[in-house]
Design brief:
The chain has 222 residues and is of the alpha/beta class. Helix content is 45%, strand content 10%. The protein folds into two domains: 6-18 and 157-212, no CATH class; 21-151, 3-Layer(aba) Sandwich (Rossmann fold). The chain has a five-stranded parallel sheet, sandwiched between helices.
């Protein structure tokens, strides 16, 4: 695809802003990092632990739709190693490395905590910036009795693209993934995967324009 035009950039920023929940941070019982192709999310989770926001750091992720074509090691194992290299003690880390999507992240983490007889009431969920809202909607559907706030690496859209930690994905790839996540926010509630989220008209119009412009490579089949 050709170089990003100002028009495409502005449409993408509209989706980027919508995907953020803008939850203020408060102390929690555990930090749950939803792993992916974005290693910066591991760093954000480790930073929050080291700043004292929660006493337990959980990494959840096996190999997903994107990473199964990039890596052979489970996402959670890679993320946990990054956290330990940053100074997080291994005894404060739990690893769930079987899940392949966001719903499984929550389900399998719930099972892991039950097996360990750990009662966690409040989570800080850490995710990619453009998956905050979908992660919130999924968590609230799968585990509604728990408190959850969602955060991500604290970057602007432009900074995120310029410092992006995985060179195998281009800015066009990131925009296409954002488009696919917005479509899932729209269609997944009726499939039982998420709670509904309001999508403003201007955000949906930006989505449709990006699909029309060729950024629909990560759309789910309907």
């Amino acid at each position: 695809m050709s170089e990003m035009t100002p028009y495409i950039h502005d449409l993408a920023v509209k989706l980027w802003n919508y995907h953020h929940t803008n939850h203020p941070l408060t102390k929690a019982d555990a930090i749950l990092v939803l792993c992916s192709h974005d290693l910066r999310v591991a760093e954000r989770g480790a930073e929050l632990f080291l700043e004292g926001w929660a006493p337990l750091l959980i990494f959840s992720g096996g190999l997903g739709v994107i990473t199964r074509f990039m890596w052979t090691e489970p996402e959670a194992d890679m993320f946990a190693r990054i956290a330990q290299d940053m100074g997080v003690p291994a005894e404060h880390i739990l690893i769930e490395n079987r899940s392949s999507n966001t719903g499984e992240n929550v389900q399998f983490t719930r099972q892991l905590l039950a097996e360990r007889k750990l009662e966690i009431d409040k989570f800080i969920v850490v995710q990619k910036p453009y998956m905050e809202r979908r992660s919130f909607a999924t968590f609230r559907k799968v585990w509604p009795e728990k408190q959850v706030i969602v955060t991500s690496p604290q970057d602007s859209f432009d900074d995120y693209l310029s410092t992006y930690s995985n060179p195998e994905l281009t800015p066009d790839d990131v925009i296409s993934i954002m488009v696919g996540d917005l479509q899932r926010i729209k269609i997944y509630p009726e499939k039982g995967f998420q709670i509904p989220q309001e999508i403003p008209d201007d955000v949906w119009q930006a989505y449709e324009a990006l699909v029309e412009a060729g950024y629909g490579r990560h759309l789910a089949s309907v």
